[in-house]
Amino acid sequence: MHDTIRLENMGIPSVAVATDEFRNAARVQAANLGRADLEAIYVAHPIQDQTKEEIEARADAVHAELVARLTVS
To answer: Model pTM?
Structure first.
């Protein structure tokens, strides 16, 4: 989340992506860094035991949101 905030503060659109297990930690970190308004995109946890196809399906599920948030003007 730190790098996302640093980039956003520089005017470079960015989005953190994490598993839902880290939702609360990401929100706390963003708030502590002065950007409580930033929200990551979350996918189901865990991912380390997923097949390539399962991980691709999770990526596909958030692709539209990711593109939308990176291209907002």
So the answer is: 0.86
